Amino acid sequence: MSTPAGRRVTMVAAVAENGVIGADADIPWKISEDFAHFKATTTGHVLIMGRTTHEGIGRPLPGRTTIVLTRDTDWTADGVRVAHSITAALELADEILADQPADRQVMIGGGAAVYDAALPYADEQILSEIPMSPEGDTHYPEFSRKRWREVRRDPRAGFTIVWWERVFACGGSAD
Hints:
By secondary structure, the chain is α/β, with parallel strands linked by helices. The chain has a single domain, classed as Dihydrofolate Reductase, subunit A (3-Layer(aba) Sandwich), CATH 3.40.430.10. Helix content is 21%, strand content 30%. The protein has four helices and ten strands, in the order ββαβαββαβαββββ. The strands form two sheets. The chain has an eight-stranded mixed β-sheet with strand order 5-4-3-6-1-7-10-9, with helices on both faces. A two-stranded antiparallel ribbon has the order 2-8. The two termini are 19 Å apart.
């Protein structure tokens, strides 16, 4: 797939110490500063998220072009674009970005299956580390620390934001 020059795919997530990102279709913590960080990080960009994540939010997030990834070929929702595979979602994002300012990026906003599918295409991960181990049924995918390097760490009240950049080309591995 050809991509616009300079286009980056960035995964944005809040992850507990035990890898949990969700429980019963909800986030098992409420940290308003982390929600504000997600908003600031993804606003102005193309945001890819899964259908369950989108339905949990209940509406398109303002200031973002949203692509909802779903296997259901009949599913539609107002205010979003729909794709049925991660490659189709990225191709659609590239079409959207072709007419946009060069600094627009593709942001991956969950859930677990979308993060897992997008990981081989990601250039960067921005992970809010949540210092707890709640029960949960949704986990962030494991990734090889050999293929990623931590480039920045920003401690906040109740969590720490960590930026990871890919070190090696994925070469077809799942990371």
